[in-house]
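Dear Dr. H.,

I hope your travels went smoothly. While you were away I took the liberty of generating a structure for the chain from your last submission, since the lab meeting agenda had it listed for discussion. I wanted you to have the full record in hand beforehand rather than looking at slides cold. The sequence, exactly as received, is reproduced here:
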Amino acid sequence: MSSTRSFLLLALLAVGYMLYSAWEQDYGPKPAVSTEASTAAGGSANPAASSSSKDVPSAASAANAPSAPGAADAGKEPSAQTISVATDVLRVEISTLGGSLVRADLLAYPIDPKDKTKPVRLLDDGPAHYFVAQTGLVSGSGAAPSHKASFNAEKTSYELAAGSDKIEVPLTWTDASGISVRKVYVFSRGSYLIETREEVANAGTAAWTGNEYRQLQRTAPPAQSGGLFAVYNPEAYAFVGAAWYAQGKFNKLVFAKFAESTLSKTEVAGGWVAMLQHYFFAAFIPVAGEVDQYSTGTADGRYLIYAMSPAQTVAPNATGTFATRLYVGPKLQSDLASVAPGLELTADYGILTFIAQPMHWVLVQLHKFTGNWGVAIILLVLLLKLALYKPSEAQYRSMAKMKQFQPRLEALKERYGDDKQKLNAAMMELYKKEKINPLGGCLPILIQMPIFFALLWVLQESVELRQAPFFGWIQNLSAPDPLFILPILNGVAMLATQWLSPASPGMDPMQQRMMKFMPVIFAVMFAFAPAGLTLYWTMNGWLSLLQQWVITKRVGAAAATPAKA
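The corresponding predicted structure, in token form, is as follows:
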């Protein structure tokens, strides 16, 4: 198998997979969003329309989980003000309506690397990109504030002061029955993890029993523009949807499959629920060991995933606390593993995770050593070439011998003409006599395929490489090479590889002409690929070329006499 054909196979598989993913995103089945789905997911369509509604499900146990707010609630929410909170990494707005997080800007991640003043907005209560994080209480024995209850705020603005490590943002709610709730958000310096707690104080005469629910609610993102080279836009095919971790397993659910979801009042200990998108996500992470019930639902054109805490009973003149954590930020795998088990899996590499995660770890270590992600990619290619040196050497030795005996193969082709059976038998006899393995080049390619696809997803999914500069003309490894230098270098490497590689005896003139156009086709393909991926493929091509050239020279020098037909 020639190197050029191998490159073609790898690239076509990669592009084919991305085209399929993009097609699924654009034309896959869409769910019928309705309140019936919400009801099936866990209860009535509107369990918490008011703080003391008789329709609120009983909180005697977590089996009565709330479901999504229904379409009947649209436009009926009371007016609310927002509280702004600024840390060194987050700018958040909290609504007094339910104390919900309705906006979150990630200050270290600009939308455009040329304009640092406009960061990525992950949470947003605007209709086009609706995505909010909400908590609320339900009770069957007394009043409880849902995510639609009106809270009071002490201040409308908080900012992390120099020398301070934390900000506490309290909101309060009080009912005439004597139940009061203090909802507190705690933000820490340098952290995307927000601690939350709801302190229930019972000044009444009867015990209060209730649960806390935590839910992430969002709309599907606007469809990405199509086009042939949209396959190189990760936003077009990256996973967007709900995810949860339960019983040591990472699970995900695309929006198109919400109506078919079986996640309904599922008891989970030590897990979490999340909404994912490319590079970033939000997740509610319960207290370790807490047994919650997870559900999904749809309502009013929105998708929800939520968790219901165990019930707590608060005696008269006592206080009870519901605590959880909310992560709003990037998929930084090195940090997420220490936040909660399985949280690093939100950087989803699919079935190749077992290869991609170690590869990502190596890439991170190389970056710590070099301080440059482009240089780290080059060093990673060198390490992979060293690891695959022996199988690659066997491949190139086989190819060098094939080229050395090319005149004899052509002579056999002329002798037997169109008699394919006799030609193949004669070729097999020649291979056996000269100890040539015609399939010797296939094993290295089979080994490299999963590595290539794993690295493809590492480069596409790793937020660390987002907008990372290399040097000179490449200031964004997640965008195409602006001067097309790397794609051209890749095409040159392929041309030189073709010159060194033996032509297949059975290849007709049309196939030979097609193979000659492959370097141009590849150069055009990689002109639209992220520069990080093109850098990897170009370096891999030139190092493979160097290795093939050296081995071809050695095989030629070792030949005692010229091969005769």
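Two observations you may find useful: DSSP finds 13 helices and 20 strands in the chain. The first strand starts at residue 82 and ends at 86.

With kind regards,
E. W.
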